[in-house]
Amino acid sequence: MSSTKDIYGGQSLLIGPIRRSLTVTPDDATDLAEAPRAIYLSGTGDVAMTLLDEADGTVKTYPNLAGGQLQQFRPKRIWETNTDATITIIACY
Asked: Do residues 71 and 65 make contact, with C-beta atoms less than 8 angstroms apart?
C-alpha cells in the first residue's frame, strides 16, 4: 500500500493556481509524501514514474517530456532509474 497522501481527495480535474512547489529528488526506494497536482520540468527529458492510482506499482518511463511547462501527471514516486539526471523536477501543489 502506498504511503503517498492524496491531498486532493481523488479529484480528477484540478484547476486553480499552484499554491506551493517542491523540488523532487528522484528515488527508487521512496514514495513522495503527497501526490502533486502536476510536475514541472526544467528541460526536456525522460521521467520514470509510478502514478498515484497504479495499485500494482507499475513503473512507466515517459520519454522526451517537454520542459518549461506543467505536465499533468500525479506521481506517487519518481524513479531515479530511467529519469534524465540533467533536468530538475518540481512537484506543484
From this structure: yes
